[in-house]
Amino acid sequence: MDEGMHHANYHYGHAHLLARYCDLPEPQHPPRIQGYLQHGWNMGDGLAPGTPFVAGSRVLVWSEETRRRSWSQGRRDVIVVGAPFAYLLDMEPGDGTPGEGTIFYPFHGWEGQQVSGDHQRLIDEVKANEPGPVTACLYWNEYRMRDVRKRYEKAGFRVICHGYRGFWWRDHNREFLYHQLAELRRHRRVVSNRLCSAVWYGLLAGCEAAVYGDPMVLDNADPTFGGEPRLRRQWPEVYGYETDFATCHAMAREQLGADDLCRPDELRALLGWPVLIERVV
To answer: Could you tell me the superkingdom of the organism this chain comes from (predicted)?
Structure first.
């Protein structure tokens, strides 16, 4: 596999968003990223479990904490670049107007793994603890399951989906993070039943955050990095019905590398783009 073409680099429109930040002349057609770009927050080494990976390839991670974990796993060419969502906020700072109500992200599966759990129990707990209007944002995997979607609609939630992240270079929603940012900004709180990227994104965007409820079970989950119990042990501050915004916001900045963002010229060099651009010219 050509490590500069890893399909996960295009999930959620990451490559296209970074191409815009880097002022490329054609951001809708970004050059190949020379390395593997972390595509979602995790408590591991920046790579999704089971990711096809060429030994010795560069890994581009979101935070110094992730870089240290990756180093401990034997990877040496690991560089902190920050999360694409943090670059989006840098480009789209917003006006600071507070939102209303809560956006709820139920833990989800994907093409290769499904989630098992009681959605009705989650719905009841969210309704009991969120006083304002609630938006349930389902991942595409659950959104296409009519019985799951109807359950949230029947509960009176506004039900949305940010779109399809893409898979094997197909059907990418290049506006995924733009849609997510817009939805986060229209809400005061972001809630999930498991600590995930959306919680950190919401905090960085200015939302209050809370993680509670049955975390559900992911089929054939990889236990290498400790699973749900470790999430609760390592980041207890985000768990519970009410959390301290200042503390959690600072943690989000650390997890997303928001204070370590590169300048456009630096990021182009780290992604391996300058040489490719010169070839095109």
So the answer is: Bacteria
The DSSP code for 177 is H
Can you tell me whether residue 79 is helix, strand or coil?
A: strand
Query: 50 is written with which tokens?
Result: 């089971």
Q: Kindly report the pTM of this predicted structure.
A: 0.90
Q: How far apart are the first and last CA of the chain?
A: 26
What are the CA-CA distances from residue 79 to residues 6, 15, 17 (Å)?
17, 16, 19
CA distance 146 to 53: 35
If asked whether residues 148 and 219 sit together in one domain, one would say yes
Task: Summarize pLDDT for 79-96 with one digit per residue, the tens.
Answer: 999 999 999 999 999 888
Q: Is the dihedral of CA 200, 206, 212, 215 positive or negative?
A: negative
Question: Given the DSSP bridges, would you call strands 208-211 and 115-116 parallel, antiparallel or unpaired?
Answer: unpaired
